[in-house]
Amino acid sequence: xxxxxxxxxxxLNELYPDAHCELIYHKDYELLIxxxxxxxxxxxxxxxxxxxxxxxxxxxxxxxxxxxxxIENIIKSIxxxxxxxxxxxxxxKELIEKYDDIVPSSREELMSLSGVGNKTANVVRAELxxxxxxxxDTHVARxxxxxxxxxxxxxxxxxxxxxxxxxxKERQIKTHHQMIWFGRYFCKAKNPQCENCKLKKYCSLxxx
Length: 208
Known about the structure:
single chain; 11 helices; 60% helix; 0% strand; mainly alpha
């Protein structure tokens, strides 16, 4: 592990020793659906709608037979709600029909589910199954580029590959959450807390 990575991880540990997934869930499939819903919207917004959704539909069977219009009405405050509502129905049906009501752990099986891409699959693998993964959302991408761990032109999948090479396996899940919190609350897209940051020497915002 390089000095740079060590310093970055130490600072993230200092700021957010207890960083964790902020999506609220009580069952495995609830996390899967919540992560799918969180695309291009905030965890806070998702938690508001899933609180209602999962209280009304308490298991996969009831969710799989729900009225699509009702799901749309419940989640309409988040982006792309019509497409996401359809995915909620399909995921519930697919888990029942293909996986005996159990959320699978392999990336390939997860990505076979409706609306589940690489990032969602990796979040589920890390959170539910503790498989070392470093999913890249907008916060992780921004931090990686600012700290020159990735190029500005890199797509999420390229950033993910670079981060997984740089960060030890045993630290990847924790670092994923810490980078999200760092981007969400400290190194924000607008008005980052640069005056309190110990990583300025690595940051592209401070290049001369």
